[in-house]
Amino acid sequence: MEYFLQQLINGLSLGAIYGLIAIGYTMVYGIIGMINFAHGEIYMIGAFVALITFLTLGSLGITWVPLALLVMLVSAMLFTAVYGWTVERIAYRPLRSSPRLAPLISAIGMSIFLQNYVQILQGARSKPLQPILPGNLTLMDGAVSVSYVRLATIVITIALMYGFTQLITRTSLGRAQRACEQDKKMAGLLGVNVDRVISLTFVMGAALAAVAGMMVLLIYGVIDFYIGFLAGVKAFTAAVLGGIGSLPGAMLGGVVIGLIEAFWSGYMGSEWKDVATFTILVLVLIFRPTGLLGRPEIEKV
């Protein structure tokens, strides 16, 4: 039971990271019907910005951990928000009325460009970070330990999900996003600035990816220019598994994939964890093509 609980906690923290990245995929798809395949690289850039910010603060003599973490988080979110806005302006907006294959190829090209851009600037070697938040919370007489970073990841993810739910359901921006999701042309005729709404959607998704990147940096203590590719693929898988276009579905899909990886690695070995993840995805889509929480699109004629 202790080992089961330990893997459950590990899976929840990993799933929270996948879920944060998956929300960016599902928000963009829900509004413009396209997949932002450069989103994984935005998450990678967020991790690098957090690391560079921490090293810069250390060189300036700022070593108080709460302040350093706050500055790391804010700087990572701001920088990735700018990158997200730029990706939308360069890779998507000019091709919005083109056939869907064109923006797909553009997004893949942007992903490769960002990956190599970071490799040139930061080098191909992995970048380590010493533990910033050491210590564990022990449960069941020390049989189960939860690091403070993993606990913070779960708490922050829950808070962000609540905040985003309130934003989508209770604010004018959320109403504009839902209007654009239903019919962009009609929303524009009713006074909604569609370009602004889509740009802000990319910005918000990028900011969430930055939070995930910083959490990965704090948990694992090492990053490289290639972490965005695999994490992006798994987060996209999480969005599809939960139901592409559904925010709760994206988070649920991320948690499911995180739990699958944690339990499979813990009981069966880590060599086949990715095979298990994608096998379960295929089985779910065979019996429920819209995902766990997705709804079929009904086209009125």
From TrEMBL:
Lineage top rank: taxon: Bacteria
Pfam family for this entry, one: BPD_transp_2
Membrane topology, as annotated: Multi-pass membrane protein
InterPro entries xrefs: ABC_transp_permease, BCAA_transport_permease
Transmembrane segments: 12-35, 42-62, 68-87, 148-168, 275-294
Keyword Transmembrane helix annotated: yes
Record has Cell cycle as a keyword: no
Family designation: Belongs to the binding-protein-dependent transport system permease family. LivHM subfamily.
PANTHER family listed in its UniProt record: BRANCHED-CHAIN AMINO ACID TRANSPORT SYSTEM PERMEASE PROTEIN LIVH, HIGH-AFFINITY BRANCHED-CHAIN AMINO ACID TRANSPORT SYSTEM PERMEASE PROTEIN LIVH
Name this polypeptide is given: Branched-chain amino acid ABC transporter permease LivH
Protein source organism: Azospirillum isscasi
Species lineage: Bacteria, Pseudomonadati, Pseudomonadota, Alphaproteobacteria, Rhodospirillales
